[in-house]
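Task: sequence design from structure.
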């Protein structure tokens, strides 16, 4: 496999080989919330006879439609927004009937991944409220970004819904909102980020996202700890970076908690 900077289309083109069969991307990315031009990458894939698989977890089906943009397959961790309350584990693979029959059905038959009836029911119930929850969480995330962007203890703010986002033009073209997540750097590196997180009262520390509760995590010591400092630096994951998943609490309460915790840094 070959890793590329997903926002650089030239890198995608240069990485293509005669035996390339599948391109994979996530957009927005975890945890730096970069947004990749799905339609452009789909064209690169299809021109070479390859397929494109998109991880759409951070956008959800409400904010981005990869299949309509040319992707052949979309994958979700249903544990996140689809469940919405951290109750069960699950996933989903979406594509045309032909794609599923040709590429997924045999694998499922031979390996047997299946949800319990109860977990399947929980996820179906979660889908019923997905639209309402994601709209509220997206609005809250945007409110948080505005409230913290000029704070002296916040040295960098990343939110796809902001006009200063590096891929703002791509966001406008392919997304219907800025995501339910915000990422920002806290002054003081890892120590500053830890002091900030430990001072939070309402927001919970967790690697999960898309939950009814607002959740925060420190990627450098959790989700991306294993890739090492050099790789994290290349990806823009500093020791002070935190990733916040907006929940369903009142936005003012979340902002108040965040501002109070920043005073501890």
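Answer:
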């Amino acid at each position: 496999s070959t890793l590329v900077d997903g926002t650089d289309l030239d890198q995608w083109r240069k990485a293509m080989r005669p035996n390339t069969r599948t391109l994979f991307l996530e957009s927005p990315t975890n945890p730096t919330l970069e947004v990749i031009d799905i339609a452009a990458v789909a064209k690169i894939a299809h021109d070479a006879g390859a397929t494109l698989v998109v991880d759409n977890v951070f956008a959800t089906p409400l904010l981005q439609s990869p299949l309509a943009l040319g992707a052949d397959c979309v994958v979700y961790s249903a544990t996140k927004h689809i469940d919405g309350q951290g109750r069960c584990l699950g996933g989903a693979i979406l594509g045309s009937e032909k794609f599923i029959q040709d590429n997924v059905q045999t694998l499922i038959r031979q390996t047997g991944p299946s949800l319990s009836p109860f977990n399947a029911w929980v996820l179906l119930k979660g889908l019923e409220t997905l639209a309402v929850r994601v709209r509220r969480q997206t609005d809250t995330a945007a409110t948080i970004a505005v409230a913290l962007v000029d704070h002296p203890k916040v040295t960098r703010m990343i939110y796809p819904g902001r006009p200063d986002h590096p891929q703002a033009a791509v966001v406008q073209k392919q997304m219907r909102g800025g995501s339910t997540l915000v990422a920002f750097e806290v002054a003081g590196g890892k120590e500053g980020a830890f002091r900030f997180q430990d001072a939070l009262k309402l927001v919970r520390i967790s690697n999960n996202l898309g939950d009814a509760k607002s959740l925060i995590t420190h990627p450098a010591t959790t989700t991306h700890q294993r890739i090492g400092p050099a790789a994290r630096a290349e990806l823009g994951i500093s020791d002070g970076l935190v990733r916040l998943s907006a929940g369903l609490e009142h936005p003012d309460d979340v902002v108040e908690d965040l501002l109070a915790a920043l005073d501890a840094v």
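The chain has two domains: 9-111, 130-262.
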